[in-house]
Amino acid sequence: MTDHTQPQQPYYPPRPPYEPTRPITTEPGTTVWPSGSGGGFTPPPAEPAYAAAGPVPAGPVSRRRAKRGVGLMAAVAIAAAAIGGGTATLVQQLTSDAPATTASSVVSGTNVSASSTGTVAGVAAAVSPSIVEISASSTSGESTGSGVIITGDGEIVTNNHVISGASEITVRTSDGKTYRADVVGKDPDKDLALIKLQNASGLKAATLGDSSKVRVGDEVVAIGSPEGLTGTVTSGIVSALDRDVTVAKDTEGSDSGQGQGQGQQQWDPRQGWPFEFGGQQFNGDTGSSKTTYKALQTDASLNPGNSGGALINMNGEIIGINSAMYSPSSSSGSTAGSVGLGFAIPVNTLKADLDALRSGGGS
Fold it and tell me: In this model, does residue 57 exceed pLDDT 60?
């Protein structure tokens, strides 16, 4: 009897009598087990959570997805690094199961004011309607100065020396209208005066600031009518604080021609209002009747006719009333223009004196 040897099985262990159920791979980290066939085959228990950090099965689909995911993450990281940061956040969003949040494209910044407050042009546009030209006629002639509207019905602040001794006062506003004005009150000791326009309404009043907050180096704008050039705008800085400036109390023939200013040199508006500083006289003799006040010094260009006009900060607030400037004379005797030595009465001095001016006098 021939002994037949059984052939060796080509597979060991032997194949199962059914095809094992294989998982279906969808997205990375998600496994779906099909239900049904296989003789009640029970899927193996889920892998531990840390298995996701292990190598991805080397199937062709998984390999392509892995390469694509790594390439996308690397591209995002490079782009984010080039922009300047945020790589970690972007990578976290890409690897998270939750959908990424789209960043806002709006960039926060400081809004630019439509009125351009903070620029010379913006200040000029805002305050020029509140500055007027004043023409004062007297027996001694006619002088030109400036003033600041402080109420809508026509109260105007100016220097006392601009209107002192005037028999007639004419005011021209920035829109070209002219008004007659009456003197309400004067304070020669502070070189301040208050006048009131006749039959005026709806005027734009200036905003009075706080001169105690002014610092050396602050930018300022001056508006006035030098040499009759209405609405002239110049700019500069505050050069010094609390300068002791001495000026004449009145011009010749002041106080309605009663002669209290007799003996003084007649004021020539082309030469500028005479004043003393540091023991020296400028723009002529100040006479025997004098007064001294604390002033702001500025290098903003001031010329004859700027007296009574406004010195303004970059918020459009009045911080001073321009009152004196040095106008050097040339060899021919005519004025040579501003050299950046101007003085203004602090607005806080005006505010403290305003009630007295309205009552007809000064403090």
Answer: no
At 207, the pLDDT band (50, 70, 90 cuts) reads very high
The pairing of beta strand 207-208 with beta strand 317-325: parallel
213 backbone dihedrals φ, ψ, rounded to 5°: -95, 0
Q: What is the pLDDT of residues 267-304, one digit of tens each?
A: 555 556 677 877 777 777 777 788 899 999 999 999 88
Catalytic site residue from 191, 250, 299, 353: 191
DSSP assigned state of 40: S
Distances (CA, A) of 152 to 146, 148, 197, 241, 321: 17, 11, 10, 31, 19
- Whether 4 is catalytic is no
Tell me yes or no: is domain 120-358 CATH 3.20.20.105: no
128 is a catalytic site residue:
no
212 three-class SS:
helix
CA–centroid distance for 198 within its chain = 36
Res 326: pLDDT: 82
52 phi/psi in degrees, rounded to 5: -65, -25
3-state class of 1 per DSSP?
coil
What is the number of other CB atoms lying within 10 angstroms of the CB of residue 45? Answer: 6
How confident is the model over 176-197, as a mean pLDDT? 96
